[in-house]
Design brief:
Elements: H1 2-22, E1 41-44, E2 49-52, E3 58-60, E4 63-66, E5 77-83, E6 90-97, E7 100-103, E8 111-113, E9 123-125, E10 134-142, E11 145-155, E12 157-162, H2 173-182, E13 186-187, H3 190-198, E14 207-208, E15 213-218, E16 233-239, E17 248-254, E18 258-262, H4 271-280, E19 284-285, H5 288-298, E20 306-307, E21 313-317, E22 330-333, E23 345-351
Parallel strand pairs: 2-11, 14-17, 20-23
Antiparallel strand pairs: 1-4, 3-9, 5-6, 5-10, 6-7, 8-9, 10-11, 12-17, 13-17, 14-15, 15-16, 18-23, 19-23, 20-21, 21-22
Length: 353
């Protein structure tokens, strides 16, 4: 090893001598310093998470910090996009450059810049929908300078597990999306399910989430639900084939504009009679998501089992008592009875435009 090292040192010495002979004008030691100015433009948000409710308005903060050495630029562009739940795509929301402004898709006519100052690129979203939930990116481009910041829009609401009349584990991902929409809800995100688990949601059936994963929340470990010796948590099956695999789904809903109520009727009703009774009262038969929202967000309590739009029979209890969910506050589920059975009342919903 030592002879090899000596040979290498001799070779380097000879090479240096050769360079000295060939290029005598070269200096033996020269240090070159490269300096680069920091970014002359950046963007920041006063808060990275904004919480609102369906039907309300929200302002997503985005403030431009611009070096005074930059010349004024009327073509500075502000662009807002929405990140998909799997972060693979960005959906255009709003673009502004000088006097030119444009909103896109479902955001058309509902978004504009706050514009409290020339350096304020905050986005105002009005008439918030369930689908507006998610993460938004503010991007500012000024010539060769640019900056971005991501802000989350969260909604007050509730996560609930759902399966249709067909029974458990009958929904592929696209069926799950339709099932939630039919119940005035959307497929829940992992963050929403995790927050529900922290609020003691315990459910032993796996369900789709908006990112294409399948998970379920366990607060009380037990043998059929991952094992009784496991720790509490959100169990994760990972990503699943959206067409071939079938599970239940976790839906999310928020505040609504309208009135949810149990219809006082002189007799019990079949399903078809329940639908007509709500219509006669100037309403529609209520959906599962509307019952969960009324129960969780408005404290609705009623110890009468009633038909809902999907053909299920349920009732909401916020004050546990004998014969009415004695052990816990919950939306009680009586299954999917034969629609011809004349055994139940009905819950209606009257929307406010």
């Amino acid at each position: 090893m030592i002879p090899v090292l000596m040979c290498a040192l001799v070779s380097l010495s000879l090479a240096q001598n050769d360079l000295d002979i060939l290029f005598p004008e070269l200096e033996h030691s020269r240090t070159i310093y490269v300096t680069e100015d920091g970014p002359k433009l950046s963007v920041a948000a006063d808060q990275l998470k904004v919480v609102t409710r369906r039907g309300g308005n929200a302002t997503l903060p985005c403030r431009i910090q611009r070096d005074q050495s930059l010349a004024p630029n009327r073509k500075m562009r502000v662009k807002w996009t929405k990140l998909t739940s799997d972060y693979l795509k960005e959906v255009d929301v709003f673009v502004a450059m000088d006097y030119h402004k444009r909103s896109y898709g479902s955001f058309h006519g509902r978004v504009h810049l706050l514009g409290s100052s020339p350096m304020d690129a905050s986005l105002v979203i009005t008439e918030i929908t369930l689908e507006d939930y998610g993460r938004y990116k503010c991007e500012v481009i000024d010539g060769l300078e640019d900056g971005t910041v991501v802000v989350s829009l969260d909604l007050e609401g509730i996560v609930f597990p759902y399966f249709p009349r067909l029974g458990r584990y009958n929904l592929n991902f696209y069926d799950a999306e339709r099932a939630c929409r039919d119940q005035d809800a959307i497929v829940a995100s992992f963050d929403q399910l995790y927050e529900a688990w922290r609020e003691k949601l315990d459910w032993c059936n796996a369900g789709w989430l908006s990112d294409g994963t399948v998970q379920y929340p366990i607060t009380t470990p037990r043998e059929p639900c991952g094992g009784k010796n496991t720790v509490p948590g959100v169990r994760n099956y990972g990503l699943r084939d959206k067409e071939k695999n079938h599970y239940d789904v976790f839906c999310f809903t928020s505040h609504y504009k309208g009135r949810f109520y149990y219809l006082i009727h002189p007799s019990k009703l079949t399903y078809d009679e329940a639908v007509r009774a709500c219509q006669k009262d100037g309403a529609q038969i209520a959906k599962v998501g509307q019952m969960y929202a009324a129960w969780k967000l408005l404290g609705y309590d009623r110890c009468d089992a009633g038909w809902l739009a999907d053909g299920s029979v349920r009732y909401p209890i916020t004050r546990p008592r004998r014969r009415c969910s004695p052990t816990e506050a919950a939306v009680r589920f009586n299954g999917f009875p034969d629609k011809k059975h004349k055994l139940y009342g009905v819950y209606c919903f009257k929307g406010h435009n």
